[in-house]
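Need tokens for this chain, all 258 residues.
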Amino acid sequence: MPAVFVGHGTPMNAIEDNGWSRGFAELGRSLPRPRAALVVSAHFYIEGTCVTGQEHPPTIHDFGGFPPALSAVRYPAPGDPALAARVVALLGAERATVTHEWGLDHGTWSVLLHAWPDASIPIVQLSIDERLRPSEHTAIGKAIGALRDEGVMIIGSGNIVHNLRDAFARLRARESSTPDWAIRFDETVTAAIEARDLSALETALQFGDGPIAHPSPDHYLPLLYVMGAARTSDRARYPITGFDLGSLSMRTVVLDAP
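Here are the structure tokens for all 258 residues:
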């Protein structure tokens, strides 16, 4: 199976017919159908590495201030307790546990309800441990990479550039232009992906445009899991590119066999 990073953007993409939601739908049509998906979402950002273990994970509405129609969305995909147990086995019980205290957050369902609208593919979410160093997130990605040979698609959901304060300021000012720092950071990260330069990716938030591109690392870190699960023989493709609200990079990265 491919390893995929998706720029999910605003939750409104779940209910709007726009270029991003249509891109998610086309992404689902273009990818092979997995037996299950393991999703690393920016919004499951906690102290600890946990995997959701429910047979029927709830749809979580982890936001506020949006229209009631968004809170009414349900994505009733099944879970996969056996996959959750397999992830724990790959990572070791000393650093990963199964949880029933989470479900499918909007980093997952706002994309997948377009990509797989029948909600029939089992979904397990893997948390991001906020205490880990970047290289440790990559190491987890490497450890779960074996799942790709077991019919499991590994998906990271975040944004390569994610500065909400800047994005909302542009929205209020009705200013849709993309700042130079956002373009540069998106290009820098893309170049590192092309070169499979894990060191550059792991340190990207520390230098240059990194601090302004990501005031918080949560939306960047899912990329490290996907890159950890990648193989040197994989090609990198970018079926979705561009910026939403000026400074949210919507770049999607697909890593698969040529």
